[in-house]
User: Fold RNA polymerase sigma factor from Brotocaccenecus cirricatena.
Amino acid sequence: MLSLYLAALESDGDKKQFRELYRRYHRVMERTALAVLHDPHDAEEAVQEAFLRVIENFSRIDEIPCKDLGGWLVIIVRNEAITILRRRRCHLPLEEGWADFAGQSRDLPAYSSMVQLFARLPDTYRAALEMKLVLGWSTAEIARRLGLTESAVNTRLSRGRALLRKIFEEEGIEP
Assistant:
């Protein structure tokens, strides 16, 4: 698969840089996608799609500070995994466990409405909240992945939750 990605790049320097990027981050991207999708085949698809996005934007990769590159790649693969998850959910019926949950949560808006509300958050807050709430990462892990201090991550989480509460209030939803 690596050779297909390399064929899309023009210069030898870009190919060398991509090889290093692939070698260094492929496994962590795979683990991230697997944490979201819980299916190795779908996780690999998400990683492949993420690397295609990287190649599409490869001319701008040098603009990303080295310390932020890993976090950037993790966010790309996470977004691709969520896209696959959404496609999968649109095509599969609810499992029994979900049906029970839906019966207990009649006061909550539909999942897609919640996702739309969550999507209204600025990227900086949404990324930290998704890593915490969706992926279940610790504050230390989020800080490492985003190249931030734990204090900065806690601030983003706190501000993100406050903005989410405000969005809920604007929509007339009790959190």
Remarks:
- Residues 91-109 have pLDDT under 50 and may be disordered.
- The radius of gyration is 18 Å.
- Residues 14 and 58 are 8 Å apart (CA to CA).
- The chain has nine helices and no strands.
